[in-house]
Amino acid sequence: MSSIKEWFRILTVIPLIVILVGTNVYEDPANIFHDESKAIAEAVASGNAAYSASGNGNEREVKRNLIMVMPDETDCIAVGPSLVMCVNKDIVGTDSFINLGVSGSDIYDILAQFGLMDIYGKTTKKVIFCVDSYFFDEFFYAAENDMNRALISYTEYMLDLMNNKDPKPVIAENAGSLKTKIEQAFSVTYFQAARDQIILNNKFLMTDSRWGIVKEGFDGSKPYYGVDGSWTYAAGYQAHDVNWVLDQSINYNIEIQFAKDRHINKYSMVVFEQLINYLLDQGIEVELFLCPLAPTLWDRLEAESEHYFILDEISAYAKEISEKYNLKMIGSYNPYELGMQDKDFYDARHVRREMLGVYFDFGE
Questions:
Q1: Are 333 and 293 spatial neighbours (Cβ–Cβ below 8 Å)?
Q2: How crowded is the C-beta side of 357, counted as CA atoms within 13 Å?
Q3: Contact 100, 109 (CB under 8 A)
Q4: pLDDT tens-place string over residues 149-161
């Protein structure tokens, strides 16, 4: 009798697993099983703005593919986390601009992108380098990171190059690796994201293409990449008012994001300076960009300054590097130094695009 009950339990669970896996694979909110990154990158390189139908594509793969097909020479590129992603060619003042920023970009992501550029023979005259805590906080890059694991061979290539070693052959892991696919196929968290996508689209069936080109009449319901790789937030996100910024600032996880009781990492400082030297040796101009926090978020850090000091340390280090190598430094983490208000932000961290050109001089 007990064996019958066991079989009944198994037979009850199997349909649930089938629903979980089937939904995750079919809806695929992060495009792990249906990667549209190459198509989006090629569309951008061809002069089109493009979007992921899920609104949540693989940014690193889009930018990896964009590096492969971007012009061999550009006037300027931007690297760093999402804080720099809204900088576009109009703000920089040249059509020859590519934005390579990706959300959460850390030391290994940025090195990988420069490694890719070297391998594919891509050069630029100027780099806008968004200097953020992700680069200098070991907590983010020391642990195994699924987001940049696929690009780690390019990171190692670049480290060898900067240290005057013969770079090892690059064996890049496919972003949709078997391990990642298996993990996400059975992931409850991924199922929740799939559910949210169904609710957003108000349907289960993915009847439309998983990516598309922004054309006249586009309703702005999804974020998209501009013709220079820059990011435009969905219209709904842009519509948030200052109360949203205040709420986001109050609830922002400062303990993780701003390295509570952790100092700037010495290894990161060494690698950063090596990278600056490498770029300057290539005749590339480097501008350091310190993106401010929303004032309400900054106030939280100031109130607990005895625990949150990494931004001050990074700021001092960036100033030291800028003076040592005569680099232009733009911005400040402290919004009050720039006269900024909460209303100038989309959320606790991201400056509105229309304000980027007002407060920061990214031009010549």
A1: yes
A2: 9
A3: no
A4: 678 899 999 999 9
Helix 107-119 with 152-162: angle, nearest 10 deg: 80
DSSP-assigned letters across all residues of 282-313: TT-EEEEEEPPPPHHHHHHHHHTTTT--HHHH
pLDDT the model gives residue 248: 98
Token representation of residue 177: 């690796």
User: Which pair of tokens denotes residue 355?
Assistant: 């304000």
So what's the pLDDT on residue 23? 72
Secondary structure of 77-89 as H, E, C letters: EEECCHHHCCCCH
**Residue 80 backbone class (left: φ over 0; alpha: ψ -120 to 50; beta: rest):** left
Which residue, among 55, 95, 66, has the nearest Cα to 212 in the 3D structure?
55
Cα–Cα nearest to 201, from 28, 21, 11, 350:
28
Q: How far is the C-alpha of 364 from the C-alpha of 356, rounded, in Å?
A: 15
What one-letter code names the amino acid at 304? E
Helices (H), the chain: 2-27, 37-45, 59-69, 89-92, 107-119, 133-136, 138-141, 152-162, 178-185, 188-201, 235-238, 242-251, 254-257, 266-281, 295-303, 310-325, 353-359
| Token reading at 330 | 């733009």
Helix (H/G/I), strand (E/B), else coil: 33:
coil
Mean per-residue pLDDT of the chain? 88
State pLDDT tens for residues 187-233: 777 677 767 767 766 666 665 577 899 999 899 999 999 999 999 99
